[in-house]
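S.,

Sequence below, as promised.
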Amino acid sequence: MTKPIFVKVEQYDDAKDVLSAIQKKLDEAKETLEKIQKLREQEEEELTAWTEEMKQAEERVAHMQDVLNQQG
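The prediction came back faster than expected:
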């Protein structure tokens, strides 16, 4: 069986304040990480779109080269 622990009220209040401050910092860190994750997702979407646009441009150029080679 565990024995009761006695602490001064001031220490208890200090401990509660410290834990509250830690929790606040953890919440802020979590929020920051979520923002970073959203930014990474947006970047990935943009890179995917740019890659697709580049692929389409390359296909158009290749098609035009084929047409020009057939006529020349």
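The chain has a mean pLDDT of 93.

Coffee later?
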